[in-house]
């Protein structure tokens, strides 16, 4: 596996979680994608058709939106740590998530060359929320609710993670910010992103939007398909994309409004598009399983 895992702590020695709390916080490790060699063995051409990324994103500097994501992600982890809700490195669920990420990340760079320099990070937060996200810059977080309540298989987790990674790789947040920068309060936010005003509070003002941002239907379709291909190349069964959204739909009916579905609406059209694209990535999956 072409992944370099770094553990860092102020003392240089990893802390040991207390027996009293499985969520004893510890500094997260970073996943650096050094997967060019691994990716070279697979087809270099995308098998799903999502077209070019939105040109509107170019109105917002990538480094600024990524910096906003990094800062807001750090704030979220600090809040979780203060509540004892940040999973430690020895947590089995977190180890599972990082192992899955370690297989997906090497295939990210063809979708966005900036991802080569992202300091990928994966964390798990103890919460009943059914939610997960990947912020600009490769900052991934899962909530325990999505794993426990939906009882996700590894293949289904890979579909969720691939989908969220795809939002970051296709720079959907950057494009949405640019498109909304001409109206109301968003104009001031856009001006700061573009360096036209004070930028000191950029991350604070951007952060909430990055977490709660609702993407367009087109963005969601792109993320579904790019995530499907990422997962297939990493050796995860693409049919899990269908079972995942079937579980999401069932959970929505039984539990009412879900945080994840408020920004990721489910429905038969979504599942139908995924099913239509399964044949396009099936060979990638079979080849990955062979290797």
Order of helices and strands: EEHHHEEEHHHHHHHHH
* Integer average pLDDT: 76
Low-confidence stretches: 1-29, 32-43, 182-187, 196-208
Please tally the β strands and state the result.
5
**Major beta sheet summary:** 5 strands, mixed
**Tally of DSSP helical segments:** 12
Number of domains: 1
Distance between the termini: 12 Å
Shape: globular
Percent of residues in helices: 40-55%
Q: Give the strand line-up of the largest sheet.
A: 1-2-3-5-4
| Class derived from helix and strand content | alpha+beta
Output the radius of gyration. 18 Å
How much of the sequence is in beta strands? Answer: 5-15%
Describe this structure in words.
With 291 residues, the chain is of the alpha+beta class. The chain has one domain (57-290). The protein contains twelve helices and five strands. It has a five-stranded mixed sheet, with helices on both faces. Helix 5 packs across helix 10 (240-255). The longest helix has 23 residues, at 268-290. The N and C termini lie close together (12 Å). The model is unreliable at 1-29, 32-43, 182-187 and 196-208 (pLDDT under 50).
Q: Brief overview, please?
A:
With 291 residues, the protein is α+β, with helices and mostly antiparallel strands. The protein contains 12 helices and 5 strands.
Layout: helices, strands, pairs:
Elements: E1 3-6, E2 30-33, H1 36-40, H2 62-82, H3 92-104, E3 120-125, E4 132-135, E5 139-143, H4 144-150, H5 154-169, H6 172-180, H7 184-193, H8 202-212, H9 217-233, H10 240-255, H11 259-263, H12 268-290
Parallel strand pairs: 3-5
Antiparallel strand pairs: 1-2, 2-3, 4-5
Helix pairs in contact: 2-8, 3-5, 5-9, 5-10, 9-12, 10-12
